[in-house]
Structure prediction request, 1270 residues.
Amino acid sequence: MAKLNLTRRTVLQGIGGVSLSMPWLEATAEAKKQTKAPINTAFLFMPNGVNPKMWTPEGEGKNYKLSEILKPLEAMKNEFDVLTHLGHKQAKHGDGHYAKTANYLSGELVHKTSGKNIRSGKSCDQIIAQRVGNNSPLPSIELGIEATRTGVDTNVGFTQVYGGHISWSDSTTPVPKEIYPQLAFDRLFSKNNLNTKLASVLDAVKDDVKRLNDSLGTEDKVRMDEFYTSVRALEKRIQRSIKNVKAPELDPQKHKRPDGGLPKSLQEHMTLMLDLMILAFQMNRTHVATFMFGNSVSGKNFSFLDGVEGGFHQLSHHANNKEKLKMYGKINVFHMVLFNNFLRKMKSIKQGDQTLLDNSLVMIGSGLRDGNKHEPINLPTLIAGGAGRGITRGQHRVFKKDTPMCNLLLGMMQESGIESNKFGDSTGVIV
Amino acid sequence: MCRYFILFVLIISSAQADEEFKKIVGKYCLDCHGGKKTKGGVNFKGYEGIEHIYENHEVWKDAIMQVEEGEMPPEDDPQMSPDEKKYFLSKLTKVFDEAEKIEFTDPGPAPLRRLTKKEYNNTIRDIFGIDLELGKEFPSEGGGGEGFDNNAEVLTFSPLMFEKYVQEAVKLSKHIEFTYVDGFRAFKEEVPLRNNPQMLVKLNREYNEIRNSIYPPQFQVEAYLRDYMYAARDLELKNAVDDKSIWSYAKAKNMNPIFIKHMIINLADRKSKNEVEKKYLAKWYALTKDSSKKEVEAAGKQFLEGYKKSRYINEHTTPEPKALYRKYIQNVRNHIFKVSNEELLLCLSEADRIRLPLISKERGLTDGHVERDYNRFISKAFKKLDAEKRKKALKNPKEFLNKKQQGTLNWFANKRVSDKKELDKLLHKNISELATKAFRRPATKDEIAKMVQLFHKEKDLKGIQAAARLVTIRIFCSPSFIFRIEKQIDGKESYKISSHELAVRLSYFLWSSMPDKELLKLADNGELKKAEVLNQQIDRMLKDPKAIALAEDFSSQWLKFKEIKETVDLDKKRFPEFSHELAHDMFKECVETLNYIIRNDKSILEVIDNNYVFVNEKISKLYGLKGIKGDHFRKVDIKDKKRGGVITSPAVLAMTSYPLRTSPVLRGNWVISSLLGTPTPPPPSDVEELPEDDSVADGLTVKQRFEKHREDPNCYSCHSRLDPMGFPLEMFDPLGRFRTKSGGHAIDATGELKNGNIVNGPQGLKKHLLSKQDLFLENLASKALGYSLGRSLEFFDRCTIAKAVNAMKKDNYKFSALVKVIVHSKVFQFRRGHTQASK
Prediction:
């Protein structure tokens, strides 16, 4: 078996990144006092699928053997399950990536369009956020590292909007992600944005909408409704912050505000965003989060990894070429190294006699299995966390072929307190 | 309406009755493109006649080309008989041809348009006349329709988006300074709120120091002076001695930027130092980057002593430093006049962009000060005049003052406004002016009244500037600013939009920003309705520097070179020259080229080929040009026929490469989709690709590998179109540099077209593309129309496109011809009636 060797440099960078962010992760006094913490749900999306030959582990149940890609997760093996044979039926319609990205968290059909009538499904993270998000200053956060590309992929006829969003607050409204660490940090922790004098501005703006609505056509009213909802969302946030929802203050000594702009290295960028997610959970800023390791069709150059030469998307079209498959796998391994750090950090945060990870549900996966084939079946999927009720992990769970991915999404929704028995094409519940 | 209806029915009936056509489609197309299989995402199922063509016009248009060129049905499948083919094509072509002739009365949807991040910043820039670079951190627009970020269909709104609008409005408000006389003005640097007593005391003191003494008394305090000395050193070490850096440094350290600047000038000016000074400064000048703190302090001490002594020497023996400082102070005094009745503002020239904040009148500035400033101002202005002019000027000072001076004079004339009613009137006027600009329509009485109320409430709590900030935030968070709202009129009939709305549509099309004064004036007095006037305005606007938006926004998306800044990620180990900065220069080159063509109304075919390039030093190296120095771009005429035109620009060649090698497929794809508007469907899964790296040797050249690949009939239909457009560009490496070899093989830059013709090298490619100019022009017209309307194109837009193509061909391929057809078109000037729209 080929040894996957991350370079010394990468490993060192990794360590550097961790030590840099560790201070954030120390539990504050307030957090320690809490006995029963709310459940956090996180959805991590990897673009371009995985090397299928290196993903699925051998064996089933507890005594399975980690596959090459999953090797970096060795130390965390008891904290997650590998789920095999989950897929999105609706995503089979439509070419390439777009029809398998925008619906990753809804399982709905992505309407093929260059712009007119964009439609995907309302994503499960947003359903959770809208129903239970009132318990925290922000109902949810959406993070990523790449700005949504602009334009239309003319070869397949899909707007790039689809490739840049996995969170949809309703079937026609994608939720943009924050890619700047500093802005994400400020949004979560800065109080300046929530100046109470803004209330008077928001009132005036709401009045504007009401006045304007009389003179707008039906379609324009829909857009104006989105605007109004957004104004209301900020208003609610301010009200919640005044009411002082349990959200402990950050210790500015320990939790440094990230620099402005985009971090130079991909690893640093991803690590920072994931750390912010953890910190947001830990500090009760939000309990729902999504993260995109890249937009679909992301062509990020991964040549910084030893033995990898080329862009992600290009390598994912490996054409069964051995060299390419190897490099493709190394990129997948890189994502797993980051995921391992993520789990480790969550596990290290104590919440009463539990850990943050125990009180969370985290899934990671991709909307494609093999980037060469673009098929949305047997999707690479991991689930971690005890959901606050001590679910034990550490298994390779092989389901019946073509089991709906929506079963898992429904499971996560139910664990988050949503009373629903059906989501998308679900036929059961997986947690 | 009637005419449209009849024609429409005509087409429907002829096509609907056409069982023959349906049969052909069923026989040859539906196996792959209907029902179970929808290869390439193309689905003809449900075809029942014209409606389907109408709804899916892009696909059907493509079908014409595919069948015409024999690409469809695929070679191995049953082929249409010549008669069937002829019938199929003639029927379909007829539908399209007729659509080009019909004057459709339906202007199509005009969805509500949110300002894009670019439009947002441009609009604020044009309201305040200063570019604060706002909106940079807004999420990027996904884009849609014809491929543009201003496509309203996907400009959705979300809570994060609104938070960003609020944040940017708050940011903007901090740059706003309000005076009753001058209203809301924005400055490059943040304007501190004035209700900081400590700050005020300090500023008052400094103000007086500057006014009263060339050597501020404070400078005699050693500690004070030392701070400034170290600040100067700090900034010099950082090489940050520009005004902006000084300002932000001073702000952070609560120091006076003017004094810091003075210190830097004084210290840097070694030449005019006399021997004694040089002696005292010896240690200071001997300091290096690595000098210890002790050494710095020792040098500082020596300098201080020297400074005290040399002051005397300076004043009496060496005039230069003193003159320098005097000049500097003079500069300050020149701009000391911007005083309003309630507060006093001290600032340097706007070019200097260093400002001192407000000082309130109540804090000790008397009318005397103002009076004195006025006298100084007048005498200074008059000093430059000769005796005779001075006499005349005394009678009518305004004639002899420049605009700025006149403004100042006017201010003085107004300065005694203190009547509360007067002030209120001014407040109303200022708020109304700002809101009217921001809302792109007159602000209503009710709106203004509420804003004035908001202002007063906040003013009572926190003062004038805080109130002005709040009103600014309120205006720039309003949907009336964020959205371009047009009046919706009830009824089934479409109607002409107002002149004002037309001006707005026009200016956002050509400038990505709000209309300017001239345009608004013509809209207000109705002149803009005249075709002549509208054409004059189009010509004027295209010449205006703001029309660079058509290069930066429209062209960069039409020709996709925007991607060079965003997604291109060449491998830096292989191409160490590639950097973020170089990518920006590549982008800039294309912008300069397009800007030149559009603003000078050259033939748009120069995009394909011309005999010049725009280069700076870095880009010239990629072209192998010699003797170009510096960062600025200039037009250089070239003889090299391989170059010239956007096709062979480094930006395009780099963005159509993979990190480690060129890609004839990506390049070919760019040519046929971005230039000709005839993209291929996506590749099927499970195709074998080329190795990553063209230095891998398996005995085959890249071209040979491709040819092998093309032997597969599945690949052939697309690659026979893609490859011959990409190979000719193989003469250029991923950075766009000319090369003759790749991976040890000589480059074969020929592509064979399906008809057997050979396209040889970039010259051959350009020639071939010029022979396909109809496709190029049609694509450009579609893109421009989609961009101008901010929506996906509809079937009935074909007539506008066809008109625009003809107009360009008749008028030397001028971009202005295209713009005029679009702007005069029904789709641009009309809106659907309310009931028509909500159907």
